[in-house]
Specification:
The complex is a heterodimer. Chain A has no helices and twelve strands. Chain A is mostly beta strands. In chain A, strands 2, 5, 6, 10, 11 and 12 form a six-stranded mixed β-sheet that branches. A four-stranded antiparallel β-sheet of chain A has the order 3-9-8-7, with no helix packed on it. A two-stranded antiparallel ribbon of chain A has the order 1-4. Chain B is mostly beta strands. In chain B, the strands form two sheets. In chain B, strands 2, 4, 5, 6, 9, 10 and 11 form a seven-stranded mixed β-sheet that branches. Chain B starts with a strand and ends with a strand. The chains are: A mainly beta, B mainly beta.
Chain lengths: ~110, ~120
């Protein structure tokens, strides 16, 4: 079965510092991994995805994510956090044989303080 | 492009009443998804359509829930009768037919409160 785990409910970071939001996954075949962000009272917005190729994936708003097959992880990172990055972040994995079914993690609330 | 459009944005109703949520996907997208988001259960896929045909409804919680897609530009999610435990934010999303590479585009959601 496919699943995604986000071990931290909340991450606090000071503005200007690097941030990491963790995600681990479990899939039966090749992983197709995604990060989404949700701002208050809004729908989820796509940030980036890993399908194949380079393990470091760059996405929107300066975010990047590193795919690590041996650790089955896909952590979201940003070198310098902004207060406006404060939001809810979701990791998702696409089911191997059913490409159109996503499994979302429980979400991690990122708080960036000035 | 206006993105995925959902209506209403907020719905407050009483237990036992019928509730209909509406969604207009992005033009040209072949797939449409309905999700439910709650604090307790997170984001759950309820059902998805491909070319207006329901493909997987295994996430629909009960027979009280039904979804239709009469054409490529419109879908509804109906709850009849509604119960307080149905209170949640319901999202509609759409995507292109692009195999594993197609990301989903989400609407703003409908916040449903059943009293």
């Amino acid at each position: 079965a496919q699943s995604v785990a986000q071990p931290e409910d909340q991450v606090n970071v000071a503005e200007g510092n690097p941030l990491t939001v963790k995600c681990t996954y479990s899939v039966s075949g090749n992983p197709y991994l995604f990060w989404y962000v949700q701002y208050p009272n809004r729908g989820l917005q796509f940030l980036l995805k890993y399908i194949t190729g380079d393990n470091l994936v760059k996405g929107s708003y300066g975010f990047e994510a590193e795919f690590n097959k041996s650790q089955t992880s896909f952590h979201l990172k940003k070198p310098s956090a902004l207060v406006s990055d404060s939001a809810l972040y979701f990791c998702a994995v696409r089911e191997g044989y059913n490409f159109n079914k996503f499994y979302f993690g429980s979400g991690t609330k990122l708080n960036v303080k000035p | 492009d206006a993105g995925v459009i959902q209506s209403p944005r907020h719905e407050v109703t009483e237990m036992g009443q019928e509730v209909t949520l509406r969604c207009k996907p992005i033009s040209g997208h072949d797939y449409l998804f309905w999700y439910r988001q709650t604090m307790m259960r997170g984001l759950e896929l309820l059902i998805y359509f491909n070319n207006n045909v329901p493909i997987d409804d295994s996430g629909m919680p009960e027979d009280r829930f039904s979804a239709k897609m009469p054409n490529a530009s419109f879908s509804t999610l109906k709850i009849q009768p509604s119960e307080p435990r149905d209170s949640a934010v319901y999202f509609c999303a759409s995507s292109l037919l692009a195999g594993a590479q197609g990301e989903q585009f989400f609407g703003p959601g409908t916040r449903l409160t059943v009293l």
